[in-house]
Amino acid sequence: MAKLEYHSEQKASPKMSVKDLNLYYKDFQALKSVNLDFPAHQVTALIGPSGCGKSTLLKCLNRMNDLVAGCQITGTVFLDGQDAYKEVNVNDLRRRVGMVFQQPNPFPMSIYDNIAFGPRTHGIKSRSDLDVIVEQSLRSAALWDELKDRLKKNALSLSGGQQQRLCIARALAVKPEVLLMDESTAALDPISTAKIEELVGELKDSYTIIMVTHNMLQARRVSDRTAFFLLGEMVEMGPTEILFSRPREKRTASYVSGEFG
Amino acid sequence: MSAKFKEKLASALFGFTAAVSILAVALICLFLFLNGVPALADIGLPEFLFGSTWQPSSGIYGIFPMIVGSIYVTAGAMIVGVPTGLLTALYLSRFANAKIAQFLKPGVELLAGIPSVVYGFFGLMIIVPFIRTSMPGNGFSLLAASLLLGVMILPTVITVAQSALDAVPRSYYEGALALGADHERSVLQVVVPAAVSGLMASVILGVGRAIGETMAVVMVAGNQVQIPTSIFEGVRTMTANIVLEMGYAADLHRGALIATGVVLFVFILLITLLLNLIKRRSEI
Ligand SMILES: Nc1ncnc2c1ncn2[C@@H]1O[C@H](COP(=O)(O)OP(=O)(O)OP(=O)(O)O)[C@@H](O)[C@H]1O
Ligand SMILES: [Mg+2]
User: Fold this and answer.
1) How many domains in chain A?
2) Is-above-0.90 flag for pTM?
3) Residue B56 resides in a domain
4) FRET pair for A80, CA 20 to 30 Å: which of A60, A141, B26, B94?
5) Is residue A16 part of a domain?
6) Domain, as residue range, for B38
7) B133 with B61: CB under 8 angstroms?
8) pLDDT digit string (tens) for A173-229?
9) A108 in contact with chain B, both atoms CB, cutoff 8 A
10) What ipTM did this prediction achieve?
11) Are residues B144 and B246 in the same domain?
């Protein structure tokens, strides 16, 4: 059964993948020849102890690492088989590969303008088109009913959980293909977390989701596949149930059983 | 010495120094109003504020041309200094590479340290002759004062605006980039609006700086008591009025000059009030 799953995964061409990825912050090597596929319409969880390079890997996928001075990358990141660093324009890449950050970061403007910012950036000017996008995005983030009467309100007046779902809605508004989530529930209470987890389950029909989490239960609940990292190395990758119940590597076993972390 | 005693001593010392500065402000107010208000009463407030003739020798004290002069010169300085200052701040904060910023920042700070009489000299030797040779009039003009003051307010506008821009959380900028916006759009559409109250504060502080400036303005503005009809004509500001005549004024004339100071003080007060209003609104 397990073998079969591994087999079928290898066949379908992945939405994104990284090949022999090495990343250096100045002299410090944060990622060591990472090879990883992210199949379409699946939720992939990245787990591992703090400082193992999960966020770093995530930021390679939408080139946010370009902002870090002294950051050097070798290897290749593919999006739909194209080299994300050479064959795709960086702004197109970031539109297609959306990101939700650990801390909710709505812009200090109205809820409506927050969501409309992305579509406006990509050339959508008509008010009626924007209205439709705003409503759709808020609906996908399960926020529409809560917020439909307060679209003109400043987004900073929302609760932390609402802000984070607004950020998800904002990311969805540019119709991305991949959604990166870096510990996006870490700053939230259990109820907001449950809402976002539920949301992720619904979103994977339309998007490919890659999420970093410290919460092993969360990884088990929402992800289809899990990759375990340690000190910049990708130790093991597999279907979530198998990785947690029958890991091949000893290091994985001791991490998921809570021996270190 | 016990810790408690030390604490008390420090608190007393700081309390004393704070009291001294508050006392100084209070004394200045007291002086201004005690000396200015009787003259105001004597001349009559409407005649003083809206009278267009200033002839101390005949006992006519109308400062309307000086009020207009101050407003014109300040407005001119804003036209010159605000766009330049804000764009420079934006450049330093978000566009300049580290090397250029390293070189420009001390330059801006140096600009703030130049005494205003030196600015005045610069205006006198460079700006005024340039206007005289290439434009109408003798060069001593509203235009000269505006250009010079525009440069003088730059350090105020730039430093305050830049710190407002620098204080915008990085997460806003990164959030915009992550949506596929380029650097320019992220900065102009997200970072700048987020800094808008600080940017407004920089402009208002610039206004305060311009309206209070005296020495440099006296040296290049021509100082005629008149409401200028073109930017090439001379103009006298309230500050210039005070400094030009204070040396020999006596009695009501002296009172009228102090009353000019009172009017100036009210202007500055309004500006400070506006500043606090903006600060408070941005805190909510
Ligand atoms: N901008 C940077 N400059 C230098 N080193 C960095 C930078 N960002 C991250 N690092 C280093 O790279 C390593 C990986 O960091 P990263 O943020 O990817 O870890 P992480 O797995 O996301 O950890 P956490 O779970 O705590 O978020 C760490 O050792 C970190 O100190
Ligand atoms: Mg991280």
Assistant:
1) 1
2) no
3) no
4) A141
5) no
6) 3-48
7) no
8) 999 999 999 998 887 788 888 888 998 988 888 999 999 999 888 999 999 999 999
9) yes
10) 0.89
11) yes
Is B176 in the A-facing interface, judged by CB distances under 8 Å?
A: yes
Is residue A8 within a helix (H) or strand (E), and if so which, with residue range? Answer: helix A2-11
* CA A78 vs CA B117, B177, B212: distances in Å: 64, 20, 61
Based on its alpha-carbon atoms, the radius of gyration of chain B, rounded to whole angstroms, reads: 23
Assign residue A115 the CATH number of its domain.
3.40.50.300
Query: Is residue B266 located within the same domain as residue B211?
Result: yes
Distance CA A111, CA A150 (A): 8
Give yes or no: residues B98 and B142 share one domain: yes
- A120 neighbors A173 (Cβ within 8 angstroms): no
Q: Is residue B54 part of a domain?
A: no
Q: Tell me which residue range forms the domain holding A180.
A: 41-64+93-256
pLDDT tens digits, residue range B153-185? 999 999 999 999 999 999 999 999 999 999 999
**CB of A97 closer than 8 Å to CB of A52:** no
Q: Which of A88, A99, A105 to mutate to test the interface with B (most CBs of B within 10 A)?
A: A105
Supply the CATH number for residue B233's domain: 1.10.3720.10
Q: How far apart are CA B84 and CA B90, in angstroms?
A: 10
A199 Cβ contact list (under 8 Å, min separation 6)? A140, A141, A142, A165, A168
Q: Do B180 and A91 touch (CB under 8 A)?
A: yes
Query: What residues contact A167, with CB distance under 8 A and at least 6 apart?
Result: A100, A101, A104, A105, A106, A184, B175
Chain A, nearest residue to B178 by Cα: A94
